[in-house]
Amino acid sequence: MKLFILLLTSIAIRGEEIKVETDFICIGNVEHEIDVLKTDLDRPYSLVVDYSTNVLYFSYSLNNIDDVFKTGFINLNTKEFDDLEGVENGFTQTIDQNKHQVYIGTNDGIYRYEHAKKAAEFYALSGTDIWHIYYKDVIYYSIFPNQFFYTYINGDVVKFKDLQDTKVDQFVIDNEDVMFFTNATGLYGQRKGTDAAKLYNEYATDGVRALTTDINGNVFFCRFDGIYTVDKAMASVNKIVDLSDVYSLAFDNVNNIIYSDESKIVRLKPKKDKAC
Ligand SMILES: *[C@@H]1O[C@H](CO)[C@@H](O)[C@H](O)[C@H]1NC(C)=O
Question: Where does ligand 1 bind, in terms of residues with CB under 6 Å?
């Protein structure tokens, strides 16, 4: 069912394909090298990077029919790829950057992975189907299928009061404590501690597939047709690059863009002094 919903959002007009022969792509008037990190993955999703180890975590689909997901990782320094041991059906990931722990939302609660131990263990919320998870000081999560939004703090589940009447699909908090979230209507920004959501853009169809922040806490997101950033002064969005069939988005620990499409994960590295 989750995959079905993801697929629905991917019925998209195929824009111009990125020519693989060209070895760069132009973003913000700078040439960026196209560094393919891994191919032959089925819709890698929920990309997150642990900045201390520069390891990328993500989930991907194991087959086209059922909701069976695997959580994998790629060491961005060595390009080593493997699956995480100890967790099944992880669909959404987030990182506690201070403690270097990865929280993985599955169809049966939250698992926690410690890089040093190289194993995931059950953490909390057995029986809960997690749709989206986000960590900043505490764990925020929405559940499937109703997308109601909660916090998990010291063993207590509490509906998150700022967003208690809202469904939440994707969620991040930026460097100025502004929360960005999406639902079936579109993308919203809302200062933490208030309940006044500002509509940044309506997306009745083909909405936001992933919301993230870069290493400076600035908000970026992807839709099927490329990568965007937000303009808080104007409460609007700006596209920074056209890409084809983007699924998810993250930044590595030196602020390179990492994105996935339906079959691969790519890093975009700016080439110094190469204007375009
Ligand atoms: C999305 O969130 C906004 C702001 O809270 C709300 O007004 C809107 O009704 C929500 N849309 C859906 C479909 O839940």
Answer: 166-167, 183-185, 188, 197
CA of 189 to the centre of ligand 1 (A): 12
Cα–Cα distance between 84 and 97 in angstroms, integer? 18
Task: Report in angstroms the alpha-carbon separations of 96 from 101, 222, 231, 236.
Answer: 5, 22, 26, 29
pLDDT at 220: 98
φ/ψ region of 206 (left if φ > 0, alpha if ψ in -120 to 50, else beta) reads left
Give me ligand 1 centre to Cα 168, in Å: 8
E strands in 160-235: 171-173, 178-182, 186-191, 198-202, 210-213, 219-223, 226-231
Express each pLDDT in 219-265 by its tens digit: 999 999 999 999 999 999 999 999 999 999 999 999 999 999 999 99
Mean pLDDT of 24-39: 95
Residue 73 sits at the vertex; the CA angle it makes with 244 and 12, to the nearest 5 degrees, is: 20
- Residue 139 burial (10 A CB sphere; 0-12, 13-18, 19+): buried
pLDDT in tens, 171-224: 999 999 999 999 999 999 999 999 999 999 999 999 999 999 999 999 999 999
* pLDDT reported for residue 70: 94
**Hey, what CATH class is 24-275 in?**
mainly beta
Q: Dihedral sign, CA of 128, 147, 173, 80? A: positive
Nearest ligand 1 atom to alpha carbon 163: 5
